Amino acid sequence: MAKILLVDDRDDNLISIESILQPDGYQFIKANSGAQALKILLGEIDFALILMDVKMPNLNGFETASLIYAREKLRHIPIIFITAYSYDEENIFKSSRAGAVDYIYKPINPDILRAKVTIFIELYQKNHQLALQEQKLIAINKSLENEIKERTVSEDNVKELNLMLLQNIDKLEAANKDLDSFAFIASHDLQEPLRKIQTFISRIEKMEVNHLSETGKDYFMKMKHSADRMRSFIDNLLMYSKTNTTDQVFEQVDLKEVLENAILELSLSIEEKKAVINYASLPTLNLLNLQFQQLFVNLIGNSLKYSRENVVPVIQIGTKIVKSNEVPGIVNGADKNYHRISVTDNGIGFDQKYANNIFDLFQRLHEKSEYSGTGIGLAICKKIIQNHNGIITAEGKPGIGSTFNIFLPEEITHVMRQGLN
Predict the structure, then answer these.
(1) Which of 102, 265, 281, 364 has the fewest CB atoms within 10 Å of its CB?
(2) pTM (2 decimals)?
(3) Is the pLDDT of residue 88 over 80?
C-alpha cells in the first residue's frame, strides 16, 4: 500500500485531502507543521509522495521542502505543493529551487488531485519494482564474482548462474519497458482533456477576452501559458517514450541529409535568431533515420534556445574518426574506430560540474522564467545514442559556449533487442 505524507497546519484541509484520496486505498500519515513532517521523516522514508501546503507558520512549505531534500535518503520522494499563491515568477522560482515536482492550486479540484497523485504513485511503484530487480541482479553478480575468485564453482553452476543472470536482465528490461509504456499511456491520456482546455481557451481569446478586467486578462494569459507548457511537456514525454519502441528499422542513412532535414524543421527559429550553422560532409551509417533527425533537432534547438543576448548564434557541426581509447567511458576496449560528431555553439554555456546531470530526465540548469523547456530534450538525445550503442558527452564554459560530442561505433550494433534482429 502506497504511503502519502500530508502536511498542512489546518486539520480541515488534511481531512478534505484524505477524503478525496481515501477511496484509492492509500495509507496516510499527517503532519500539522513543517517541523512535525521533518520529525516523521527522521524515522520513515518509504513515502511514495508528499502533499504539502505552502503557507504554514514557522516553517513554510518551501523551507520545509529544502530541509527534506537536504537529506540524501529523502531526495527520491516527490513533493506536490498545494498553494493559494498566484502563479508568478517569484513563487515559481521558490518552488523550483525547493524541489517541487508539481503544484495544485486552491480551491482543490478533486479530479485533478486524484489524477496527479495516481501518476506519481504508479511511477513510484514501477521504480520500486526496478529497484528490487536491480538489487537481485547486484546480489547475483556478487555471488558469481565470489565463486569465480574462490575457484570453487563448477561448470554447471556457472551455467546456472549465467541463466539466472540473463533471466533477471530480461525481468529488468521488462520492468523498464512497463515504465516506458506507462509514461506513454499516461501522456497520451492527458492529451484529450488538455485539448479541450486549449479549445476553450482559444474560444475565450477570440470572443470573450475583451470583456475581462485587466486582472482577469492577466490571469487568462497565465492560464494559457500554463496550458501551452503542459502541451510541450506531454509532447516531449511522448517523444521520450517513442525512443524505446522496437518496431523501427535500421538503414543506411546519409547523416548530412538527416542534418539538413533537421535544419529545415528549425528554419523559423534559425531565421528569427539569424543563426549561422556550419557543417561539412558527414558519414553514411546504419541507423534509425527519424531518431537521428530528432537528435539534431534537439541539439541545434538547444543551442538556439541558450544563445547569448545580442550575439549571433554560430553552430559548428563536424565529424572525425577516433580510436576507442579516445572515447569517454570505454576502458580496455577493443581497438575499434568511432565516429565523433561534435555540435559546438557560442551560447551561454554551463558549468562543467553539471555535465553528467544535464542528460537526466527533467533536469534543468535554468529557471522556467529564464528559458522555456521541459528538461526532457537532452534525455531524449541520450536515449537515442544508447539505442545506437554510442556515447554522448557535454562540455561547457559559462559565457563561452557548449560542445556536445557523439561517439558512434563505425559498425553500429543494433541494441534495441526485439524486432531489430
Answers:
(1) 281
(2) 0.48
(3) no
